[in-house]
Each structure stands twice: as C-alpha cells, then as structure tokens.
Specification:
Distance between the termini: 6 Å
Low-confidence stretches: none
Number of helices: 1
Structural class: mainly beta
Number of strands: 25
Mean pLDDT: 86
Strand order of the largest sheet: 1-25-9-8-5-2-3-4
Amino acid sequence: LVTSQYLEADFAVIGYQYPKDWKTAISMATPNVFDSPVQKVTFKDGIYQYSPLKVWTGNYYSFFAYYPYEDESIELFDADYEGSPYIKYTHPTSTDPSNMVDIMTASYIDTHVDASPEVRMKMEHRLSAIDIMARNYYQYTDESDVPHLVTIEITDLTLSLTTYKGAQIYLDSNYEGLNGSSIVPFDYDEKTGIAPTQTIAYKFPSLDINPNGSDDTAFRQISKDGKTLLMIPQPNEAMKGVLNMTYKKRYTPKDENGNDLEDAYIINDKDNTAVFTEEIDLSQYDCRLKEGSRYYIEITFTSDAVSVNILKSDEWDELDDVELEFE
C-alpha cells in the first residue's frame, strides 16, 4: 500500500537491503529490494500502487524516491551504479517558461522491519523556483490637473538567465557530493569551482497590470499557464540575468462634464511614442538560488519610476512538500 498527499502523479522508488549501516554499505550497495532497480509507483483513480508487492524480511533497508518517474530532462537511475543513487537532470533549453519540470526527491535511510513496518518519506523540491510579479501604482495628471489611474500594458517581457547546463542530483538531499553538495553541476571543476553554463532568454506573455487599490500586497503573477520558472540552484554565486521589458501606459481621459472619452496613451518624451522600455541587471541584487526555495522578482510601477525587488521565500507553495508512506 502506498499513500500520498497532493502529488497525484507517477514516481519512482529505489530500494536497498544490506546487513547494517548505510554509510558502510553505500560504497558497494546496488538496488535489490524490488524486481527491477527502479520501481514505478503509479497513480490511478486516487490510488498509488506498485506491483508485485514486496515483503519485509531481515536486515536493514534504505529507500529513495524521485519525481517525475519519466521526463526527457531526466536520465533514469543507473542500475549498475554502486553508491548513493542519483538522477541526471538536463536543464531544458526552451525559451518557453512553462516548459519546466519540478524535480522532487525523498529518502528514508537505515530502517529495520523490527523498528517500524512503515516507511515514511517526504518529497522535497530540489530546484529553485522563480516567479515574476508586478503591481501598479501609476497615476497620471493631465494638463487640466485631473488625476487618472493608469493601466500598464506589458507588450514584451524577456528574462535572460545564466544557468548550469545540467546537474547530478543525489536522491539523499544530505549527501555531500563532489562540491560538498547533493547537487553537482555537469562537468564541475573542483579546483576552480566552475561548471559550464548557458544563457536562456525566457519569453513571457503580454498582459495588462491594472491600477492597484489600497492593498499594497496586490502583486499579479506574470506567467504562462500559471507555471513557475525552475532553475538549478546556484548558492555560491549571484544570479546572473537581465530583465527586458516593453510596455505602454493607458488611461481614460474625461470631458469637461466628467464623462469617459476614448482611451489614450501617455507619450514617451524621449522618442515621442507611446512605448517605454526598461532593462534591469539582476546581478546587482546578489540573489543566490538555493534548492527548495522560491524567489519573487517584484516589479512596481509608480509615477516616478519602475522599481524591482527580489524576495526569497522558503515556502514553495500552498502544498509545500509531499508526504509518502509505504507499508
């Protein structure tokens, strides 16, 4: 029997049986609990299950799990590998910010049938999440000294980020790999601390940011299909990226009797057009992406300027991590 909260998708489990002490057994252990090294756990009609069911015997056990079970960005666990299990994650090169996969892993180490017949694991998010949020406090006063609320029309928004090409992600988040971390970038040079990177320009959809009311927390997420941008953690150096944005400022003028006229746009004095642009270097904020954390790039429009702030939150989402239980 397998129970879970909120995941509602297939995932993989790897099991080891050995005489005693995972730290000792790790150097020569291979998956031997299930009929295949990687056991698929399927979700159907609200139930998680795998087949054939296995029976606890003697000795000690360690279990590891990862989600998703299968994705083109993940190289499945190497059955011949002896040591702490891992997956190889290749960062997608698509500029579509919704083309991301949420990597989650869990581990339960050195359990024994006499100690507990249940295996409880918590799926933890291993990548870093980035959301772009915007709010609008822009107010325009026309030649008649009449104030107008302004709608910001974002016509183009591109976030160019430099990230690792991929990483080896150990399923035990406490495992210390090549660089002392449980996430090791591909081709990482231990002497220099450098690994190959790539810069991807993520394109976000256009949308209107309506004027805010009195609620100072009224940020609106800029996303495609409500998806979050997911990046390989880079805890030892500041995030390198540039935010480029093109937008217009629309308001509704009124006649002398206070009636609404046709919408109009504020003109940019620099080139006498209705188009405004911003280019913001994100490296100035010294934001270091840590695994399992969420980051909010907050854009605020006012009459005086466009300001940007980056906020870190350890709360991934309303569901947080995922509990798994085996019996």
